[in-house]
């Protein structure tokens, strides 16, 4: 069952997928339609899942699931990953590679391989104050409070 993302409780489970490039306007419209269709039919053991999504900065797909009624099962999580894989192929972009870092450089959102981000830190091209997107957040509350944080306050701090 599709609901507005802001209607999900703060305890909702969150999955964040970062894109290797920004979505075009046409892709954003198609993604909105595709996400609505997928989440409307998303189930776990035949039970409808109460879920919502956001596409922040036209660069991320964020799925939230209210687990108070029905939680995600292995099969439902597999279905969501297959859906994301289909989006990757259709849109020719990367969404599932966690070995990349997305961060702010001024108003620009950059996407770099982890190794390159590490080199940038060594060369002081980024600092512990650089705002990174911590895609390891697990709940909506963490997403709202700790998704965009200074690198020195996230798992990225190991590079500084």
Could you characterize the architecture of this molecule?
With 160 residues, the chain is α+β, with helices and mostly antiparallel strands. It folds into two domains: 5-91; 100-133 and 145-159, no CATH class. The protein is 32% helix and 25% strand. The chain contains four helices and nine strands, in the order βαββββαββαβαβ. It has helices at 25-41, 74-91, 114-122, 140-146; strands at 13-18, 43-44, 47-48, 50-54, 60-66, 100-105, 108-113, 131-133, 148-150. The strands form four sheets. The protein has a three-stranded antiparallel beta sheet with strand order 1-5-4, covered by helices on one side. It has a two-stranded antiparallel ribbon with strand order 2-3. β4 (50-54) and β5 form a beta hairpin. The protein is globular, with a radius of gyration of 16 Å. The model has no long low-confidence stretch (mean pLDDT 95).
Reconstruct the topology from this structure.
Elements: E1 13-18, H1 25-41, E2 43-44, E3 47-48, E4 50-54, E5 60-66, H2 74-91, E6 100-105, E7 108-113, H3 114-122, E8 131-133, H4 140-146, E9 148-150
Antiparallel strand pairs: 1-5, 2-3, 4-5, 6-7, 8-9
Number of separate strands? 9
Structural class computed from helices and strand pairing: alpha+beta
Shape: globular
Proportion in β-strands = 25-35%
Distance between the termini: 43 Å
Rg, rounded, reads 16 Å
Protein name: ABC transporter ATPase
Organism: Robiginitalea myxolifaciens
